[in-house]
Amino acid sequence: MSLALATTSRPDATGAPFDVDAVRRDFPVLAREVNGRPLCYLDNAASSQHPRAVIDAISSYYETSHANVHRGVHRLSQEATDLFEGARETLRGFVNARSTREIVFVRGTTEAINLVAQSYARPRLGPGDEILISWLEHHANIVPWQMVCEQTGAKLRVIPITRRGEVDFDAFLGLIGERTRLLALSHVSNALGTVVPVERYIREARRRGIPVLLDGAQAVPHLPVDVQALDCDFYCWSGHKMCGPTGIGVLYGRESLLEAMPPWQGGGDMILAVGFDRTVYNALPWKFEAGTPHIAGAIGLAAAVRYLQALGLERIAAAEHELLEYATRRVEEIPGLTIVGTAPEKAAVVSFTLERVHPHDLGTILDHDGVAIRTGHHCAMPVMEFFGVPATARASFAFYNTRAEVDRLVESLHVAREMLG
Question: What is the DSSP secondary structure assignment for residue 154, as one 8-state letter?
Fold first, then answer.
């Protein structure tokens, strides 16, 4: 199949055209070659690529308006502050938070979860209390809770998953109880692509008065998220997985909970007054943003949000679902290949093993052909343990990928199988 044929407009679920050729022209990196072949970038669950609009927004800030925020009366500081706080409003609207006071800028999902673990959970937990997570989680939604349990004497309880890679809801009902103090779940699995029906879990937790944190790092790039409709208490995500810069992310928190939480870090800008006898902390959200923030990162993330919104999250989800279905059919044709994670509701992620071929060797051979996939445990070692594999190969698709790139993946897998299998 030629690249031209593979990238012609395809309709989304509403019938509106989705011009992949035009979209790909927005991403400069997609024009480069690797080892003499056009780049075929299928590692989007690790980090997505950046459209020109994001690159230009960051460049424009550094070229014309760079200064520190919140602290200066001069023109550049005012411009930088307007851009930074305007980005906060863009992110508020993106997830439909009630107020910008509920939008805290952090370095990413990992820092957001650690903030909640140390500022919300740690002061409230004691021996015998329980935090409930699932077997599906990324390490970032495991280790911070283990640390809090060590600090407080609380216990970490884990909801099992099924062989299809779904969180076992019946098992969850048997685990949640009087001692549960927090439920922390991934909205979408990074290792398997499973879309967790978090609304069901939130309803049960809410009925018992248990707060809920959602790791949305793999969800916000691919589907619309409304934190008010979800009725969760905390929602965390990273910019670099949704076409934004690295080193920037967002913690959404219910205002009443954030208000009652102490600051996690101390320093400049998270204060109103400092004396040697006491300090008066700043209002929300700034009391959680100590020091000079990642101003350019916030501006770039807001540009990424505007870009995705212009395309339409529903159209993005439809385009990626079509790619997932096509990729699943194609890789299943390969003898000896086993897909790991077969939940009926998935994001555009295909994790797999190839008989008698180690995933790392597979990734190296594909790279020689210009095909970029991820290999390893994907920061989800318990998932690998559950399926009895040391690692998987993972192809993760974005809306700018094409059927032609799926075909290249399959061709390269056949080559690898012939060489190593």
Answer: -
In this structure, which CATH number among 3.40.50.2300, 3.40.50.11270, 3.40.1410.10, 3.40.640.10 belongs to the domain 54-310? 3.40.640.10
pTM: 0.94
Among 170, 174, 105, 115, CA closest to 140: 115
Strand duo 212-215 + 234-238: pairing: parallel
Evaluate if residue 124 carries a pLDDT over 70.
Answer: yes
> What string of DSSP letters covers 332-380?
TTSTTEEES---SSB-SEEEEEETTB-HHHHHHHHHHTTEE-EEE-TT-
Q: List the one residue out of 219, 198, 413 whose CA is nearest residue 320.
A: 219
3-31+312-420: CATH architecture: Alpha-Beta Complex (3.90)
Determine the Cα–Cα distance for residues 398 and 349; give it in Å rounded to an integer.
9
Which pLDDT value is given to residue 221? 95
Residues 41 and 45: their CA atoms lie apart, in Å, by 11
**Helix, strand, or coil (residue 138):** coil
**DSSP state letters, 214-229:** EE-TTTTTTS---HHH
Other C-beta atoms closer than 10 Å to the C-beta of 291 total: 11
The catalytic residues are 379
Same fold, 3-31+312-420 and 54-310: no
Helix (H), strand (E) counts: the chain: 15, 19
pLDDT (0 to 100) of residue 16? 58
Burial of 141: CB neighbours in 10 Å, binned 0-12, 13-18, 19+ = buried
- Which tens digits make up the pLDDT trace of 66-118? 999 998 899 999 999 999 999 999 999 999 999 999 999 999 999 999 999 99
